[in-house]
Specification:
The chain is an alpha/beta fold and 232 residues long. The chain has a single domain, classed as TIM Barrel (Alpha-Beta Barrel), CATH 3.20.20. Helices cover 45% and strands 16% of the residues. The chain is built from eleven helices and eight strands. Helix 4 packs parallel to helix 5. The structure holds cytidine-5'-monophosphate (C5P).
């Protein structure tokens, strides 16, 4: 795997999701299923999208005690997704428990990715609410190293950080980067954005793209433009 465009299917129902996916008659996009869709439709939506031939990033961001996360990951592993994730803030024992739970009897498992500091957390709220006093970029890099040492496959980060993460954790450590916009597109509520071509140049392994594709007048053309800029 590697170098692919993941489409964030941030829809609230199976109906809306399939109305969108049915537009794709050629290449099946790699799909991200987040909390909204998963909580609305349950595991059935994952099985159904998988059965249609899509790769899936199940973005549920687990964070609990190691035993609970291990057991939850064992359940998610049965859904046969390609990538799933957790919060690095759950610490090493939780990440190792997650890897154990995800690993199937034949030794295979989905890729496991860590969320570091959410981009909605800034320096001020980090210091005030969770008493972390270090600069936020150092905190992100520390989480990345901790995740790597625990055996995880990569992190979610801003495309602006992908180069530094590779320098620190190695080229093989995957960077999955949201916050992607076309040069002539609407930025919306994303603050720090990059084009697919810039994300490619800086070394992102996967870009996660939502509204620039899902809200486009022609979603298939927007997806193909992303693939052309990022993968080709
Ligand atoms: O519509 P848009 O391209 O902004 O969607 C980006 C996707 O990536 C959404 O599903 C959003 O929840 C997710 N995401 C993000 N920033 C993060 C982590 C995840 O935008 N730091």
């Amino acid at each position: 795997m590697g170098k692919d465009v993941i489409v964030a299917c941030d829809f609230s129902s199976a109906e809306a999701t399939f109305a969108f996916l049915n537009k794709f008659t050629g290449k099946k996009p790699f799909v991200k299923i987040g909390m909204e869709l998963y909580y609305a439709e349950g595991p059935a939506i994952v099985r159904e999208i998988k059965a249609r031939g899509h790769k899936i990033f199940l973005d549920l961001k687990l964070h609990d005690i190691p035993n609970t996360v291990k057991k939850a990951m064992a359940v998610l592993s049965n859904l046969d997704v390609d990538i799933t994730n957790l919060h690095a803030a759950g610490a090493t024992a939780m990440m190792q428990g997650a890897l154990e739970g995800l690993t199937r009897p034949d030794g295979s498992r989905p890729l496991l990715i860590a969320v570091t500091q959410l981009t909605s957390t800034d320096q001020q709220s980090m210091e005030r609410d969770i008493l972390i006093k270090e600069p936020i970029d150092q905190v992100v890099m520390h989480y990345a190293k901790t995740a790597k040492n625990a055996g995880l496959d990569g992190i979610v980060c801003s495309p602006l950080e992908a180069g530094k993460v590779h320098d620190t954790c190695g080229k093989e450590f995957l960077t999955i980067t949201p916050g992607v916009r076309f040069a002539d597109g609407d930025v919306g509520d994303q603050k720090r954005v990059m084009t697919p071509a810039q994300a490619k140049a800086i070394g992102s392994d996967y870009i996660v793209v939502g509204r620039p594709i899902t809200a486009a007048a022609d979603p298939v053309a927007a997806y193909e433009r992303c693939v052309a800029e990022f993968c080709d």
